[in-house]
Design goal:
With 369 residues, this protein is mainly α. It is built from 15 helices and seven strands. The two termini are 28 Å apart. The chain binds iron/sulfur cluster. Iron/sulfur cluster binds at residues 230, 233-234, 332, 336-337, 343-345, 348, 350-351, 354, 356-357, 364.
């Protein structure tokens, strides 16, 4: 974010956010509010065939719009009022990113550079992408502002207040998708909702609430493909269920990955349960605490454990949170555990713990995310 010229002054010369200035106003809104708006749009956009290109496009478009006084996080309506310019900038910057990234992307994905396209669902339609991915998200703070006005109230942090009004960060991450009035629906997935929670609480430390409901264990791990690949290859996921269970749940889709390998669809793990350690009282005690006090997703003692919530249990009473774990998984996934037959296992810091490396090489060679 410090590469965006409208927000340069939010950061010190070491690139650290000026935390003591988060409550300063930048126009009508606090800096905390503006950053939160930026993160929500960013979480929705942070997907697609080439993440590096997606992030470059996001940065270039924001810089271009702000240089033309279209200040979309300060005045979300400007995106629509100046829709012609918004569309032109997205198209122009997409062409620029394509020139930089298409050859590399095509090489890595055994594809044709001409097919490089960051617009949603591989269509070529910029209008759908602009409205569905950018516009819908920008409408959330705008609608919150309108609703406050309707009720004769004012706030310099409508989005922040809305987010922290939920019982926990986990509930919030579900509501930014499913809420009847403000939910983004299919524009945001579970992974992006959890990524937003991680950025808000862990990466940018924007959270104002000071309790376990918005603390380091208050949301689930964002199961993206890098994290999922590491959790699978290391054998972590096989601690909780058999390979046949993952096949039955469509987490493992045989022959559906690149080059005919088995595809690991990590997001399908969500909601799947393990009863392997149901008779371990301490384990279930910890799970009850996580569900009731941290995630706030259950009122009573559960009998089975949802697999995607196991990292929260294991991190209980440690100095680490979900954000730290996700940072570590992303680091391993993007620097060592590449999505092909020959990841850099010999240099990988977790190789001695990794089932794929030490014992079951087929977990590396036969599966792709
Ligand atoms: S040892 Fe290899 S397979 Fe295991 S996590 Fe590291 S890079 Fe991935």
């Amino acid at each position: 974010m410090q590469d965006l010229f409208p927000f340069e002054h939010y950061f010190d010369n070491k690139g650290e956010i000026k935390r003591n200035e988060l409550d300063n106003n930048d126009g009508l809104w606090t800096r905390r509010e503006i950053i939160t708006r930026y993160l929500l749009v960013s979480a929705v956009l942070d997907q697609g065939p080439d993440l590096e290109g997606v992030r470059l496009l996001f940065k270039d478009v924001i810089n271009a719009l702000y240089s033309k006084e279209i200040r979309i996080f300060h005045k979300p309506l400007d995106f629509f009022k100046e829709l012609g310019i918004s569309i032109d900038e997205i198209l122009e910057k997409h062409d620029g990113v394509k020139k930089i990234r298409a050859d590399t992307w095509a090489r890595e994905n055994k594809s044709n550079p001409g097919k490089y396209n960051l617009f949603t669902d591989r269509t070529n339609q910029v209008l759908g992408y602009a409205i569905y991915r950018w516009g819908v998200v920008l409408c959330v703070p705008f609608l919150l502002e309108k609703d406050l006005q309707k009720n004769g109230r004012e706030s310099s942090e409508p989005l922040v207040a809305y987010i922290e009004d939920w019982d926990s960060a986990e509930i919030m991450s579900q509501q930014i998708k499913d809420n009847k009035r403000y939910g983004l629906g299919k524009a945001i997935g579970d992974k992006a909702g959890h990524l937003f929670a991680k950025w808000y609480i862990h990466t940018f430390e924007l959270v104002k609430k000071n309790d376990s409901s918005f603390g380091p264990l208050s949301y689930e791990l964002p199961f993206d493909s890098n994290a999922g690949r590491v959790l699978f290859r290391t054998g972590f996921l096989l601690n909780w269920a058999d390979l046949s269970d993952y096949k039955n749940w469509d987490v493992i889709q045989e022959g559906k990955g690149k080059s005919g390998k088995h595809y690991i669809r990590v997001t399908n793990i969500r909601g799947r349960k393990s009863d392997r350690f149901s008779d371990l009282k301490d384990f279930i005690d910890s799970y009850e605490l996580i569900c009731v006090e941290y995630l706030k997703v259950k009122k009573r003692r559960p009998s089975k454990v949802e697999i995607q919530q196991i990292p929260n249990i294991l991190l209980l009473n440690t100095n680490y949170g979900i954000g730290d774990l996700d940072d570590g998984l992303m680091y391993i996934g993007t620097n060592y555990c590449f999505n092909h037959d020959e990841p850099r296992c010999f240099q990988c810091p977790v190789k001695n713990l990794c089932l794929g490396y030490t014992n079951r090489n087929e977990l590396i060679t036969n599966y792709r995310t």
